[in-house]
Structure formats: C-alpha cells, structure tokens
Amino acid sequence: MDEDVPVITIDGPAAAGKGTVARLVAGQLGFRLLDSGFLYRRAALATIAGGADSGNADDVVAAIAAIDWDAGCDEQRLRSEAVGAAASQLAALAPVRRELVAVQRRFRTAPGLVADGRDMGTVIFPDAFLKIFMVADLAERARRRLRQYPGLGMDECLAALRERDEADRGRPVAPLRPAEDAVQLDSTGLDAQSVAERIVDLCRQADPGRFKVE
After folding, report:
1. CA torsion angle for 166, 168, 172, 69 (degrees, to 10)?
2. Which of 114, 150, 198, 211 is the most exposed, fewest CB within 10 Å of its CB?
3. What is the pTM of this model?
C-alpha cells in the first residue's frame, strides 16, 4: 500500500447513494474504485454457497480465504436482499473484518482511490485526503432501494433499512459513524451527478494541482 496515493472515502448508511456517487467521482478523477460492500457480499455469497456456518467466524474466514477475487460471480444473486443481509451480519464479526482489511487496502494504487463503504474513513483509510459521510432521509433511501428491487414494497423497504441502520450503527466492531474530520453531505432530493461534482469541487479546492477532472 502506497500511503502517498490519495484516497477519497465515501461512507454512509445503506441506499444513501454512495456507490453511484463513488463511481462518478472515480470516473471524473481517473481514480480506482473500491466498493467495499461488494467485497462483503462476495464473502457472504461464498459463505452461503460453501455451506459455512455464518455464526462461526473461523468457518467464514476459511470461506473468504478461498475466494478468487478475480473470478466472476452471479451478480443478480450477489445484489439480492438476502445476500445483503448476510453481508451485514458478517461485517459484525471482528475476524471477518480483519480478513478483509488487507484485501481492501491493496486497492490503494496510483493515481488514487475512491472507496465507498461503512468504515472507509474511520478504519480502512484513516489518513484519507478527503472523507465524505453521505446521508439521505429514510423515505428517500427507501425509494432508491425500490428502484433497485421493484418487487419489494415501501413498508418492507423502510423496515429493512431501519434494521440495517440499527445493525450497522450498533455493532461492536467498526460501527457506522462519520470520521471526526468527515464532510457530511445530504443527498436527499439531489441526483448523483450533483453530489459527485460537489465532492470533486472539494478535492480541487483543497489541492487544485493534484485533482484534475478527466
């Protein structure tokens, strides 16, 4: 890991819009992208597919160690609510988080990295150049989730997001919280492009020579 490589972290609760915004920012800056949620979902999928006991940290870590991160996977299943819920459960296990820390930090390569997740700015890249904590009101987040999973109902989405928030904020290991030096951005009522442009502007204001738009 090259600590001279700039990192922009985008943390926040589920369905706040982090993933879309992170992709846009990475594209505009020509930076690499780290979707930490994808890694945890891959870990959950490997655990489920291998029949490992999700409550047994040793079994889960063994399943993760066997993952070929360069191989493809079933994207539809990976993005399912069931796998997302399993990923949230795995994220509460300290041995699992330790196993994935090194995997995530290997993404830090030149010219730079945009990392989105729950603990990117607090645990994985505490020295990040810019830390963003994205939020949106619950109803807005539920509407976004419905666009991803149109088969769900609004009440079901609201309940699932409340449960996910409680789990993410209440877990004893790396709970969801903004870093002390994070900039909080509320994406309620805003499109992803507008939020991405705001983040790029913050980068350019801080270091106009380094952060040039592609």
Report:
1. 150
2. 150
3. 0.90
